[in-house]
Amino acid sequence: MTTKQNISTLCIHGGDITDVLGSPSMPLYDTTTFGFDSTADLLEVVNGTKEGYLYTRYGMNPSIKALESKLALLDGAEQSLVFSSGMAAISALFLTYARRGMICVGDIYGGTMQLLTEQLPELGIVTQFIDPADLVHLEKQLQVGIDLVFFETPSNPTLKIIDITEITKLAHKYGALVAIDNTFASPANQKPLLLGADFAIQSATKFLGGHSDLTAGVLSGQTKYLNRINAWRKNLGQMLAPEIAHKLVRSLSTLPLRIQRHNSNALAIAHYLEAHSTVNHVYYPGLAGSAHHEVAKKQMSGFGGMLSFEIKGGGEAAIKLVDNLQLFYLAPSLGGTESLVSQPVTTSHFGMPEQALLDRGITSSLIRLSVGLEEVSDLIQDLEQAIASLNFK
Ligand code: PLP
Q1: Which residue has the higher pLDDT, 342 or 20?
Q2: Which tens digit of pLDDT belongs to each residue from 206-226?
Q3: pLDDT digits over 277-327, tens only?
Q4: How far apart are alpha carbons 87 and 374 in whole angstroms?
Q5: What is the pLDDT of residues 130-148, one digit of tens each?
Q6: For 64, 173, 220, 243, which has the most beta carbons within 10 A of its beta carbon?
Q7: How far apart are the CA of 225 and the centre of ligand 1, in A?
């Protein structure tokens, strides 16, 4: 299977999904270990002189390998590694490649922020947080000698877009590796590796899984970098269960179709909210008026299913609105078939220091939507009735 094929074809046929019985769906290898005919055979696999399956925690299981080979094609990567969660993928990367410290550009998911500011400093791994608009500061910090530059684009929760090619060129000039958290976009909307980045990371719990029923992570890049990460994954025990790999392969077959609908529903809702008198601001890179639209157009093929907006009336109005929505589930997470709503200050960014929230425009009146696959007019009607319940004059 070549990467030249369209993503819709790769999602269905791509990867090493071999079944000796000819079944079109991938068999599940629900086993922890594999037997050998002789010690000589076993040693060949252990030594790596022969390809084979050995022990599931090592990733040496056909269900895991099939998933990884499909994901590598989708990301345009030499190799992909899967993990038990998005945070497992992120932490394995940081533990492997951020020894001399790292730079985080722009806004990130609250859990990653906690890891960078609370746990990793305990191991002496320090992160500099840099505004993406301040390239001079970024270059100065790179000159100091940094291993890894990390960012999210689009970012959580205000959908800011960072120019992947621009930052990557600068980082590479000083020998730093670049990792992008591509969770909000998915490879159906954006391929960071093809734009020059060294690592693409995703919480597969979100759009890749797509049904809010599995937790997984993926990290893609060149084998020469992934080998070291693989050793950490193995000994930290971060492997995904084969059942989840099997479920994820099935989910991926509909990824492009789902993403098309996420994209079109989110754009329609962004237009609706933008025109609404009770909404102060809509954060969605697909809007022509968005400050991020031009860069988004350059590096994304679709703008995604996530959007945020500021409702008039402050935190109280935001809580009332999210509580009164009926189709949108009030829940953290994103990327499922069903629409979700959350107030980032009480969910994804809960506990972040006040100033850090304000610096990032994460106010109590900010509402985040993960727009699902329902009929968009029903979603708009639900928003309309919830906004009407605020009784704005
Ligand atoms: N990255 C982003 C952008 C996220 O939103 C999340 C979770 O919400 C993660 C990473 C972590 O993913 P997981 O919950 O699969 O560990």
Answers
A1: 342
A2: 999 999 999 999 999 999 999
A3: 999 999 999 999 999 999 999 999 999 999 999 999 999 999 999 999 999
A4: 29
A5: 999 999 999 999 999 999 9
A6: 220
A7: 22
Q: Which amino acid would we find at residue 25? A: S
- 353 sits in the region (left: phi over 0; alpha: psi -120 to 50; else beta) called beta
Other C-beta atoms closer than 10 Å to the C-beta of 268 total: 15
Using CA atoms, how far residue 59 sits from 32, 82, 230, 388, 393, in Å, is: 10, 8, 9, 52, 59
* First-residue to last-residue Cα distance in the chain: 59
CB of 172 closer than 8 Å to CB of 178: yes
Tell me, in angstroms, the distance from the centre of ligand 1 to residue 109's CA: 7
Residue 89 CA to ligand 1 center (angstroms) comes to: 10
Catalytic annotation, pick one of 16, 55, 57, 174: 57
Q: Three-class SS of residue 360? A: coil
For the chain, the farthest-separated pair of C-alpha atoms sits apart, in whole angstroms, at 80
CA distance 370 to 339: 5
Q: What is the pTM of this model?
A: 0.95
Local structure of 63: helix, strand or coil: helix
What token pair was written down for 359? 């610096």
Mutate to test the pocket of ligand 1, among 114, 161, 205, 212 (most ligand atoms within 8 A of CB): 205
**Ligand 1 pocket residues where CB is under 6 Å:** 85-87, 109, 111, 152, 156, 181, 183-184, 203, 205, 215, 217, 333, 348
C-alpha 123 to ligand 1 mean position (Å) = 22
Catalytic, out of 70, 160, 191, 206:
206
Q: Which single residue is written with the structure tokens 């094929």?
A: 5
Q: Which two tokens stand for residue 167?
A: 């930052």
Ligand 1 atom nearest to 88, measured from its CA: 16
| 324 in Cβ contact with 343 (< 8 Å) | no
Amino acid at the residue 32: T
What is the token pair recorded at 48? 């790596």
